[in-house]
Every structure is written in C-alpha cells, then in structure tokens.
C-alpha cells in the first residue's frame, strides 16, 4: 500500500541574489503530524528557504508540492491560502492596537461582515493554548513585554488554521516557562495533523520537541535525520562541517584579590535586597526567567537604572550606582543583549566599532593617526575572531555572533581587566559563534576579568559558569558552585521555588 504523500515538499530549490548563490538544490519534505527542526549556522540559507516557502522570495529553480500536488506560491497570500503560516523573528504586531485586533490583522479569512463574538472566542482559545490565560483581549500590545508579544504572535498564527506552521527562532525572547507553553501548543497541533518547521539555534530544543532535523550549510542540504538516530555532537558536526568536541571551554584558574561585591541592590518593582560576591577569573551566572530581575541587576550595576539603590564595589573600590560614568571609571563594562540598539553602531564599520571608545589615544592635536588605528583594529579583530578583511564593512552587515564579538573587542581595547557584565550574550547566535563567544569569555577570565552574566538558557548557565545564583521574581533563591547543582535544581529554583 503506497504511503501518503508528504503534507509539504520543496524540491531542488535554488536561489541567487546577483552573483551570489545562496541556495543550491535544496529539498525538504514534512509530513502531517511531524515537527521538523531546520538547523544551520547564520548564513546557511535557512531564512532564504523560509522566504521561498512563504512567497516572500521566488526561487530561481525547483518546485513546491502540497499533498503531492504541485502548486505555485508567488506571494504571501498564496502561502496563507495553502495553510502555510510563519512566526518570524521580527515581530509584526501593531503596538497601538489591542491583542484581539492584532490576532486578526492580516487574516484573509475575516470577511467584511463577520461575527465578532466568534472571532473573539477563537482568539481567546489561541491565547489560552500558548499560556496567556490571564491576558485580556482588549490589552494594548504596547503594554506587553517582548516575551508576551512573541506568544501573541504565535497565537495569531494558530487562529489561521495553518497546516504548516513555521517558527523562526520562537524562543529567543522567551523564558523557559513560556517555551514550555509553546511546546504544549505545538504538541496539540501535531496531534491534530499539523506539520511544524521549527528553526532554532538552541540545540536542546531540537531534541526536546522535534521528530527530525534538516541541516543546511553554505546554502546546501547536508542531510535529514530522525532525532532518535542522531546525537548533539553529530548534529553540531553536520552544521559546522567539523567536530566541536568541547562547546564550553575548561574553567580558568581563580585569581586572588577583590572582584565585584554587591549589597542590598534594589530596583523598584523588579529586584529587592540583592547581594553578590563574584571573584576575578571566574564566571558567575545569574539564572532566571524573563521578569526574574537578572537583567535589572546587571543594568543597575552598570549605572543604567536611575532609581536603583544599594551599594557596589569593583576591584575593591566602591562606586556610585545610577551613574554610567562612575561605573566605567571603576572598571565596570556592560555588554547588552540588544546588539542592534545598545551593542554596536550598525552604520559604522568594524574598525570604527572596535576603537570607538579609544579615539583620544589615537589623536594628536585633534588629528587621528589612521595608520595606527588600522593596525590596532586589525589586531583586535583577529583577537576576537572577526575576519580582518571586513574591517571596513558596516557592523550592520555582520551576523549577530560577529556583532557580539565587536562588543568584546571594544573591551579588549579598554586597558586593564575589570568587571564584565553580560546580559544574554549568545541570544540569537548560532552554535559555531556560541563556541567562539564562550572561548572569549574564558579568555577574559584568564586575563583577570571578573565576569558576571545573566542567562535564561539553562544549558548555557550550567555549561559556562563557575558559580550560579538563581533568581525568581526579584529574589535570590539559591547560590551554587557549578559542581554542586544540576539542571533540575536550577529549573526548580527559577520556576516554582519553595522559598517563593
């Protein structure tokens, strides 16, 4: 008896942008009730493939079939008509409209004359499915946090009766609890016969929710494997084209002397009575969900929260909170998770970004020593793993991982080791770039920096840290040496701690 055709198939997809071949003969098929991961480094071709499937781009070669029948997808409305829905990394919600209006905005199935009550009931059911049971339909989207907006975006697509749901990095802005809600929704869709294409850089999610994985590299298909037939090392090797034996470098030797000491740090509505002692040469990780207070703690210590209270000292010298200049003078440096908004100057080139805080050192009588600047920028680019051939490329043209490296390179240009604060340093970064960032973090430790980072990725928290502090709703729940805890304990602390 012949097997049913796949719900969706694309075969021989090829795409050029000018002289650049970005996809070459890529084929993929997904069956009803299957959750398929799509993995690859930044630039592997994942986004281009998705844009072809959803009608944003037209392929130069290849064809698409749904239920075994050839079809043409010439525009996004064609994709919607065929039951294909995309939840993109770039949220498309209208902030000044209500949650309900956003859910139905752009839906082709809402006629001019419709029954508002029926639409409201469907919107409510979709929000409940992704865990937003307490969110009123009338709430203005501008009042929501980024994680809630992501869940609303997913609920929006659930109302469109999609047969193929594509999620592009859906968990990048979500807490672990919110991710569990998304997983529960996907499993319900799977049980209803929906196919899911799940794009993520978090490899743990591939093994937690997916049935199979397709890997792209340099615009070509590497292969498709059942999750039951592959392990993490094999998956990383497929993505990178090489083995990556140790994602997390070995700990560096601890340094003596003072690092960062914090007493009674409070941020109204977000953090209360936070104490911390972090040593030089070590990585201290603040583990918590969105809203736990980890982000507010780091920003307050960097002088970015005007109503923060408490005391802090860096390298033995007390400095004033609420003042960025005082924090920097004390040797405190901050790397934001918002690379585009706070991390790099997108319109400036790589060299200018690397040296942006050191220009007085290259100036004499108001004239910049361009030759010396080029040599310094090249050395910094090489130190952080950015191709020095791209020194004159705009930072906005780089991948997220390379933009993050620019932020690290700027620190290396800043002189003596101090205190490095990092918020979600690998958010939205592929596995190869993650390995490079972790290497750089340990390089900073070896130079004597005191590193304190916040992460909502539990695997990362356990993999890179020497010490872990767990937070829940603005309160410290636990403090652990890395060797004395495991993922179950940390998850329990940051979700439903007994102490809370």
Structure, explained:
It is a single chain. The protein folds into 2 domains: 8-240, 3-Layer(aba) Sandwich (Rossmann fold), CATH 3.40.50; 260-495, Rossmann fold. 33% of the residues lie in helices and 25% in strands. It has 17 helices and 22 strands. It has helices at residues 46-53, 76-81, 99-104, 116-129, 146-158, 176-191, 203-209, 232-240, 294-301, 324-329, 339-343, 350-355, 370-384, 400-412, 431-446, 458-464, 487-495, and strands spanning 8-17, 20-30, 35-39, 61-66, 69-71, 84-87, 164-168, 195-199, 212-217, 220-226, 260-267, 271-278, 283-287, 309-314, 317-319, 332-335, 363-364, 367-368, 419-423, 450-455, 467-472, 475-481. A hairpin with a 3-residue loop joins strand 11 (260-267) and strand 12 (271-278). Helix 13 (370-384) crosses helix 14 (400-412) and helix 14 (400-412) packs parallel to helix 15 (431-446). The model has no long low-confidence stretch (mean pLDDT 86).
Summarize the model shown:
By secondary structure, this protein is of the alpha/beta class. It has helices spanning 46-53, 76-81, 99-104, 116-129, 146-158, 176-191, 203-209, 232-240, 294-301, 324-329, 339-343, 350-355, 370-384, 400-412, 431-446, 458-464, 487-495; strands spanning 8-17, 20-30, 35-39, 61-66, 69-71, 84-87, 164-168, 195-199, 212-217, 220-226, 260-267, 271-278, 283-287, 309-314, 317-319, 332-335, 363-364, 367-368, 419-423, 450-455, 467-472, 475-481.
